[in-house]
Amino acid sequence: MSAKTLYDKLWQNHLVEQREDGSALIYIDRHLIHEVTSPQAFEGLRLAGRQPWRRDANLAVPDHNVPTESAERAGGVAAIADPVSRLQVQTLDENCADFDLVKFDINDVRQGIVHVVGPEQGATLPGMTVVCGDSHTSTHGALGALAHGIGTSEVEHVLATQTLIQQKMRNMLVRIDGRLQPGVTAKDVVLAVIGKIGTAGGTGYAIEFGGQVIRDMSMEGRMTVCNMSIEAGARMGMVAVDDTTLEYVKGRAYAPSGKMWEQAEAAWRDLHSDEGAHFDAIVELRGEDIKPQVTWGTSPEMVLPIDGYLPEPDSIEDSSRKAAVTRALEYMGLAAGSAITDIRPDRVFIGSCTNSRIEDLREAAAVVKGKKVADSIKQALVVPGSGEVKKQAEAEGLDQVFIEAGMEWREPGCSMCLAMNADKLGPGEHCASTSNRNFEGRQGIGGRTHLVSPAMAAAAAVAGHFVDVRDW
Amino acid sequence: MKAFTVETGLVAPMDRANVDTDLIIPKQFLKSIKRSGFGPNLFDELRYLDEGQPGEDCSQRPLNTEFPLNFPRYQGASILLARENFGCGSSREHAPWALEDYGFRCVIAPSFADIFYNNCFKNGVLPIALDGATVSRLFDEMYASEGYQLTVDLRQQKVVTPSGEEIPFEVDEFRRHCLLEGLDDIGLTLKSADAIRSYEQKMRQQSPWLFDVIK
């Protein structure tokens, strides 16, 4: 038997039917549902008179539209001030009731960002195929799962058939060997990868992240890395199963236990690429070389280390790249050649499916503890990824650390990552954000996003401009 | 789904790389629970000078007259010419819904993001990847000649320029078939219901932890 990659194994294990035209029918173990990309899929089921194929494969939770202000949140769905957001969350409630699917309510302690909730509840497990109508579904690949985002037509397809029609991707290995410097985190690693291969570098590939840096990383860190695979162009990113994975999964609400755990563990131990498996592309980075990263432009690949200087369009030969850099500098209101450390955020956002887990909050709290947010910062938001994360953070006193520093402690949700609720940037405002996309208008029309790690966002909040957290 | 066989139409430009789906259809319009009506908000932040809100009458809004889709010469376009990595970012299918609702049946670019590419085929929109030099040449020809049209023939897998030049393109067989016939692929998949059931039966034995846990 020839050596297989982790992706090859996951694909093979879920293959229902290989067709002559090159397409394949792939079985889906877990389907996660949120309020934004599902209403049209449920409508499609109704119109065709179809029922979900397997109810117990689905788990729904509202996250994109939910208010994060405690007062508004306390009133539940009926109290959501924006009527359009309220209707969307209500529609999810109704659809899950009509089709008898399990859903965590807006104020259930298990509610949160769907990509935080899945692993936290053990609803996503090693070896599964996991899909959701959200591109950051790649997050779940950290568990050794085959996980990717889908469109709404495919949401309907999964609901109706428990499968997807797929073409096999090519294999890419991103290997990060060596060790990270203190203060450098998973977010910096993935931003450095994107800076190296570009936002289309992973298009057509399934990425496996490996190497000593990934092996040494916590599950939270691996989720941050896999989460942003999509910003490198790859629908899915994954990490081989090891002791770290198994320790994380054990004891979770929906994870197997007892005899079944032993059976599952034995199967999961095989979820790694075999020695000598073929990768169509290999990208290598050294952990020691990675510095804290800050994006300066309007695409995640427009990223520099903290000691970097913005590009000068005049020195760029390629006309399309020159145009892109010129446009990005203009949109961001930044001068060519200026230092990253001269950028002064107006707001700070710590949260999102990339960086809102307990480890992220601990990292940010350690930086701001005993300090105050700079006067020039209009707002610093900390939005935990789920009710469980919030509860844990409060038990550790992290909420008090943030509040004493002058930050706002909020209820869980997607929040300012994509500004579908009330949390957004004003035109021209700069934001130090732990989210995943710095596209034009992403965090509010005219808003200017700088993607950073939680520690870097926290340090910028205190200093009033970007600083090297390695010197903190 | 509307079938796609041959489309002859006016070509309009979206002349920048890495156009993301947030730019194609901004987040505030994702709050809709319908599939239609996104056309007036396609490229909303570039097309209008004010901030668009869902449900608003866009005919009353101030247009950005510097944005090409607002130029008189591109009105009625059905083919969009674009640059590298078109459709990157969010998986929102609202992006092809907005393109289709506006009137675009085809997008030609050097490359597409994977999820967007896949979503197009589910909505009767044909994404065609041609090499960068060819796309640049089509941009030049389009800018040089007002009323520039292309013919896209999915059956024969070729793009035909006004000069009669034929440019072949690749598309995988299953997607081509569904688009040519306008097929509902759920209906097709359900023909394999027995294969899905027997796979499930096998997995219930092999990996029982995958079943009956969330209920």
UniProtKB/TrEMBL annotation, chain A:
It comes from the Bacteria. Gene3D superfamilies: Aconitase, domain 3 (3.30.499.10). GO terms for molecular function: 3-isopropylmalate dehydratase activity; 4 iron, 4 sulfur cluster binding; metal ion binding. Keywords: 4Fe-4S, Amino-acid biosynthesis, Branched-chain amino acid biosynthesis, Iron, Iron-sulfur, Leucine biosynthesis, Lyase, Metal-binding. Belongs to the aconitase/IPM isomerase family. LeuC type 1 subfamily. It comes from Seongchinamella unica. The keyword Amino-acid biosynthesis applies. One of its GO terms (biological process) is L-leucine biosynthetic process. It is an enzyme of class 4 (lyase). NCBIfam families: leuC, PRK05478.1, PRK12466.1. This is 3-isopropylmalate dehydratase large subunit. The keyword Iron applies. HAMAP family: LeuC_type1. It holds the Pfam family Aconitase. Its EC number is 4.2.1.33. Residues 8-464 form the Aconitase/3-isopropylmalate dehydratase large subunit alpha/beta/alpha domain. InterPro entries: 3-IsopropMal_deHydase_lsu, Acnase/IPM_dHydase_lsu_aba_1/3, Acoase/IPM_deHydtase_lsu_aba, Aconitase_4Fe-4S_BS, Aconitase_4Fe-4S_dom, IPM_dehydratase_rel_enz, IPMI_cat. Pathway: Amino-acid biosynthesis; L-leucine biosynthesis; L-leucine from 3-methyl-2-oxobutanoate: step 2/4. Heterodimer of LeuC and LeuD. It catalyses: (2R,3S)-3-isopropylmalate = (2S)-2-isopropylmalate. [4Fe-4S] cluster binds at C353, C414, C417. Catalyzes the isomerization between 2-isopropylmalate and 3-isopropylmalate, via the formation of 2-isopropylmaleate. Binds 1 [4Fe-4S] cluster per subunit.
TrEMBL record, chain B:
Heterodimer of LeuC and LeuD. This is 3-isopropylmalate dehydratase small subunit. InterPro entries: 3-IsopropMal_deHydase_ssu (IPR004431), Aconitase/3IPM_dehydase_swvl (IPR015928), AconitaseA/IPMdHydase_ssu_swvl (IPR000573), IPMI_Swivel (IPR033940), LeuD (IPR050075). Catalyzes the isomerization between 2-isopropylmalate and 3-isopropylmalate, via the formation of 2-isopropylmaleate. One of its GO terms (cellular component) is 3-isopropylmalate dehydratase complex. NCBIfam families: leuD, PRK01641.1. Keywords: Amino-acid biosynthesis, Branched-chain amino acid biosynthesis, Leucine biosynthesis, Lyase. GO terms for biological process: L-leucine biosynthetic process. GO terms for molecular function: 3-isopropylmalate dehydratase activity. It catalyses: (2R,3S)-3-isopropylmalate = (2S)-2-isopropylmalate. The keyword Transmembrane does not apply. It comes from Seongchinamella unica. It is an enzyme of class 4 (lyase). Pathway: Amino-acid biosynthesis; L-leucine biosynthesis; L-leucine from 3-methyl-2-oxobutanoate: step 2/4. Residues 1-131 form the Aconitase A/isopropylmalate dehydratase small subunit swivel domain. It comes from the Bacteria. Belongs to the LeuD family. LeuD type 1 subfamily. Its EC number is 4.2.1.33. The keyword Amino-acid biosynthesis applies. Pfam families: Aconitase_C.
